[in-house]
Amino acid sequence: MQQKTIWKAVLIIGILIGLISCKKTIDKNQYEEFYYMNNSSYDLSINVYNKLDAEFTVNTYTIHVNDELSQETELMSGSKTGIIALCDSVTVIFGNERISHFVPSSVSPFSILDFNNYLFVKKSSNRNSYTYTFTEEDYQNAIEP
Asked: I need a surface site. Which of 26, 59, 87, 96 has the fewest CB within 10 A?
């Protein structure tokens, strides 16, 4: 009889410890914010190319002098289509005078597809911010069409 009582006590203690130690874990959505500042002397036209199946899609963005463009995506289920930093290739046109073209493997301090060229800020546990600033150096690095 005493052995049954001990086993019941051990069983109850085990169940209670299991209940106390179990925590409900909820994955938070991860958000990425991208900001593009135009500090050059030229209006920018940015063509963003993404391959979907067998075709390429093109999204075009304009950033006027001393203006900015902001984009946001949710990494778990958000679409990366149209997000400049996550595209397959990009073309930046400086006032129809000069042009730069980049792919993710481009090694350049002026590539907007290289995350090392962004100012990174961790805003919270599930939100990051990246800022790329176009300058006169970006214009000088671009080529004539």
From this structure: 26
DSSP letters, 65-83, are: TT-EEEEEEETTT---TT-
pLDDT of residue 23: 62
- Report, in angstroms and rounded to the nearest whole number, the Rg of the chain calculated over CA atoms: 25
**C-alpha closest to that of 86 among 144, 34, 39:** 34
Cβ contact 34:83 at 8 Å:
yes
In whole angstroms, how far apart are CA 7 and each of 3, 15, 17?
Answer: 6, 12, 15
Output the pLDDT for position 1.
56
What is the layout of strands, in order, in the sheet containing 119-124? 68-74, 31-38, 127-134, 119-124
The token pair at 13 is 């203690």
The pTM for the full model equals 0.78
Mean pLDDT, range 47-75, rounded to an integer: 92
pLDDT value at residue 76: 76
Phi, psi of 76 (to 5 degrees): -70, -50
Q: Which helix (H) or strand (E) holds 2?
A: helix 2-21
